[in-house]
UniProtKB/TrEMBL annotation:
Entry keyword set: Membrane, Transmembrane, Transmembrane helix
Source species, domain of life: Bacteria
Residues spanning the membrane: 12-31, 37-55
Transmembrane as UniProt keyword: yes
Official protein name in the record: ATPase
Length: 144
């Protein structure tokens, strides 16, 4: 979805967009029931349909943004692991699991397994396979 397409759409349909925004404002401020939200959804859906944007395109954009964000967070996590390996603390729990914490990264898993859970600044990035970066992070924390 190109920004130029949106600029063109807005310049050609500015009056329809202004009317829709006024309607939304009136509906949100005047109505106090569930009907209000139904009308808001109808107006927004009508604008989307009128613009020619399909729900498949919206789903594609949302999926692409989500994947891009996760890739960026994974790259940042790997860089933080390399930078903060010396500051990491390795803790072994009685149940055979371990937790490695540094100022921004937390890695937890079970001894001898190939998967670990990774969190960056409290945001879970899911389970990762133990790759070279994670292995180095774990070994550096363990050897301190």
């Amino acid at each position: 979805m190109d920004i130029e397409i949106w600029k063109e759409f807005i310049s050609q349909n500015w009056l329809v967009i202004v009317i829709a925004l006024i309607l939304l404002f009136v509906v949100i401020n005047v109505l106090r029931t569930m009907l209000k939200w139904a009308i808001v959804v109808v107006i927004v859906a009508a604008l989307i349909i009128y613009s020619g944007v399909s729900f498949e395109q919206i789903r594609t954009v949302v999926t692409d943004v989500g994947a891009s964000t996760m890739d960026t967070l994974r790259t940042e996590a790997a860089e933080l692991m390399q930078k903060e390996a010396e500051k990491a603390e390795y803790t072994v729990n009685p149940d055979g699991t371990f937790t490695i914490t540094s100022p921004n990264v937390e890695v937890s898993g079970k001894q001898g397994e190939d998967k670990v859970k990774v969190s960056v600044r409290g945001i879970s990035l899911g389970e990762w396979s133990v790759n070279d970066t994670v292995q180095l992070f774990m070994e550096t924390a363990q050897n301190q």
